[in-house]
TrEMBL record:
<dbReference type="InterPro" id="IPR002717">
    <property type="entry name" value="HAT_MYST-type"/>
</dbReference>
<dbReference type="GO" id="GO:0003682">
    <property type="term" value="F:chromatin binding"/>
</dbReference>
<dbReference type="GO" id="GO:0003712">
    <property type="term" value="F:transcription coregulator activity"/>
</dbReference>
<feature type="compositionally biased region" description="Low complexity">
    <location>
        <begin position="132"/>
        <end position="168"/>
    </location>
</feature>
<comment type="function">
    <text>Catalytic component of the NuA4 histone acetyltransferase (HAT) complex which is involved in epigenetic transcriptional activation of selected genes principally by acetylation of nucleosomal histones H4, H3, H2B, H2A and H2A variant H2A.Z. Acetylates histone H4 to form H4K5ac, H4K8ac, H4K12ac and H4K16ac, histone H3 to form H3K14ac, and histone H2A to form H2AK4ac and H2AK7ac. The NuA4 complex is involved in the DNA damage response and is required for chromosome segregation. The NuA4 complex plays a direct role in repair of DNA double-strand breaks (DSBs) through homologous recombination.</text>
</comment>
<protein>
    <recommendedName>
        <fullName>histone acetyltransferase</fullName>
        <ecNumber>2.3.1.48</ecNumber>
    </recommendedName>
</protein>
<dbReference type="GO" id="GO:0005634">
    <property type="term" value="C:nucleus"/>
</dbReference>
<keyword id="KW-0808">Transferase</keyword>
<keyword id="KW-0234">DNA repair</keyword>
<keyword id="KW-0805">Transcription regulation</keyword>
<dbReference type="GO" id="GO:0006281">
    <property type="term" value="P:DNA repair"/>
</dbReference>
<keyword id="KW-0804">Transcription</keyword>
<keyword id="KW-0227">DNA damage</keyword>
<comment type="similarity">
    <text>Belongs to the MYST (SAS/MOZ) family.</text>
</comment>
<keyword id="KW-0010">Activator</keyword>
<keyword id="KW-0007">Acetylation</keyword>
<feature type="domain" description="MYST-type HAT">
    <location>
        <begin position="243"/>
        <end position="517"/>
    </location>
</feature>
């Protein structure tokens, strides 16, 4: 059915008032420098934070055909109310047919829909209430760990004897709530906010909890979503809802003021602040610069709280165990979520090791970026999340992070690969690193007359064979010749590699790495 013949078509009008703007409207919004009008969609509406402007609202907009990291809150003056405004398409109301039972041929008694007798309805209601009460009791037991000295049947969630996956999950959920800083835990009440949802058929794919709440199936609120983020560990619980709306605009970390890109579940009372101040050494966050200054007089950290395993020139790498440094690692995850959209980061940092790269000066070791890896990865991933902070991007530090992750894999004598899916910038960085490393290796071996297979390349670089094959296909270097595939490099690829080898840039020196792989026992991994 075409839009014109649809009983609920979208409405496009010329001109409107600010009171007529609702979630889902598409109109021209002033953006950029120099400013120009771009088509954007209203994703959320909230009241302004200042009491004198309590009657005004702010509008969260997504610019059509632009990256999501450009989404922002705008004031009403930036909306073009004189141009075309496209209102959202109305949803078709659901019709309920009363008095028709599920089984044909059975009538309905007066006052009871569906043909069920009044006594049976009352009985079913009692059973339903008992069932809900039992379910609520189980949920409460699962949410709170059993006191010391109590016992439960094997397999019961929250008990050491539980051998079910739920037991491990509940343990992670419980451990994710303790040992957090006082300033991070007092979140307060979540203010009301309107959030634009997706179509119903898309919402089913966004939640991994395995079901919906009985009292609100298909309905979302920011308070419920934040509660999920606080208790279930996942920091990207539902990308279609609250995670679509960026809550912070600007952070100050060290000497840098950085514009944020995506949503991160910082305390909700920070959402209306113009700037969030972050200590660059312990990563604690504060609403005012005076509080940060007072914190710096007490904070004794001058580098990340871990073991320094690499140092050359002014670059250092620190290894941090998420189980031993929970507060720091959680703060690091919160910070990185501001710039990562496609990765699922967790408050539950126990199963991860974090490798933090810093640059040193007279004031201390300043955070540049990091990557995390699972202590035990069944799929041989050597990177779970990887990030270079925006103020240090396009300086070659991302390449150093990737190279260091593979240097660790070489020491472990394993083949590694980053966890998928990669973000857009991450994919570009990895693809460039793989291409350069493979082409340089092939050119060096070509001079000696040694032929290399895909497995040979993988063993020498610590890349997974699938990544090697993907890179060769991207370079269009696989050719079918005389009944077999051969690797053929084009002149353009060779010239680009030779140009890269002539550049003076930082490299990872294996001799500067002082590190032995950490081997965790089955007992240690069991309690992660």
């Amino acid at each position: 059915m075409s839009a014109a013949s649809s009983p609920f078509p979208s409405t496009i009008v010329t001109g409107g008032t600010i009171s007529s703007i609702v979630i889902g409207c598409k109109l021209q919004v002033l953006h950029g420098n120099p400013p120009e009008y771009r088509k954007a969609e209203i994703l959320s509406i909230r009241p302004t934070p200042t009491p004198e402007d309590a009657s005004r609202s702010e509008y969260y907009v997504h610019y059509s055909d632009y990256n999501k990291r450009l989404d922002e809150w705008v004031v009403p003056e930036r909306l073009n109310l004189l141009g075309e405004i496209e209102y959202p398409k109305l949803k078709k109301p659901k019709t309920v047919l009363a008095g028709i039972g599920k089984e044909t041929g059975k009538g309905s008694e007066p006052g009871t829909p569906g043909g069920a007798p009044a006594g049976r309805v009352a009985k079913n209601n009692r059973k339903s209430n008992l069932s809900k009460a039992a379910t609520a009791g189980k949920a409460a037991d699962a949410a709170s760990p059993a006191p010391a000295g109590t016992s439960a049947a094997p397999g019961t969630p929250g008990t050491p004897g539980g051998a079910t996956p739920a037991a491990g999950n509940n343990k992670r959920k419980a451990s994710a709530m303790d040992e957090a800083g006082a300033s991070q835990e007092k979140d307060g009440q979540v203010p009301a906010i309107k959030v634009n949802g997706e179509d119903e058929d898309e919402d089913d794919e966004g939640d991994n909890d395995g079901g919906q709440d009985e009292d609100g199936a298909g309905e979302y609120s920011k308070e419920r979503e934040i509660e999920k983020l606080r208790t279930s560990g996942s920091m990207t619980q539902d990308p279609h809802e609250v995670a679509r709306v960026k809550n912070l605009n600007l952070i100050q970390i060290g000497k840098h003021e950085v514009e944020t890109w995506y949503f991160s579940p910082y305390p909700v009372e920070y959402a209306h602040l113009p700037v969030i101040y972050i200590c660059e050494f312990c990563l604690s966050y504060f609403p005012a610069v005076k509080q940060l200054s007072r914190h710096r007089t007490k904070c004794s950290l001058q580098h990340p709280p871990g073991n320094e395993i690499y140092r050359k020139d002014n670059i250092s790498f620190f290894e941090i165990d998420g189980r031993k440094q929970k507060v720091y690692c959680r703060n690091l995850c919160l910070l990185s979520k501001l710039f990562l959209d496609h990765k699922a980061l967790y408050y539950d940092v126990d199963p991860f090791l974090f490798y933090v790269m810093t640059v040193r000066d007279e004031d201390g070791a300043h955070l540049i970026g990091y990557f995390s890896k699972e202590k035990e990865s069944s799929e041989q991933y050597n990177v779970a999340c990887i990030l270079t902070l925006p103020q240090y991007q396009r300086m070659g530090y991302g390449r150093l992070l990737i190279a260091f992750s593979y240097e660790l894999s070489k020491v472990e004598k394993r083949l590694g690969s980053p966890e998928k899916p990669l973000s857009d910038l991450g994919l570009l960085s990895y693809r460039a690193f793989w291409s350069e490393a493979i082409v340089i290796l092939l050119l060096e071996q070509h001079k000696t007359g040694v032929e290399l297979s895909i497995d040979d390349i993988a063993s020498r670089t610590a890349f997974q064979p699938t990544d090697v094959l993907h890179t060769l296909q991207t370079l269009n270097a696989l050719k079918y010749y005389h009944g077999q595939y051969v690797i053929v490099l084009s002149e353009t690829v060779i010239k680009n590699a030779e140009r890269a080898m002539k550049k003076a840039r930082r490299e990872i020196d294996p001799r500067a790495l002082v590190w032995k792989p950490i081997h965790f026992t089955a007992t240690q991994l069991r309690f992660l």
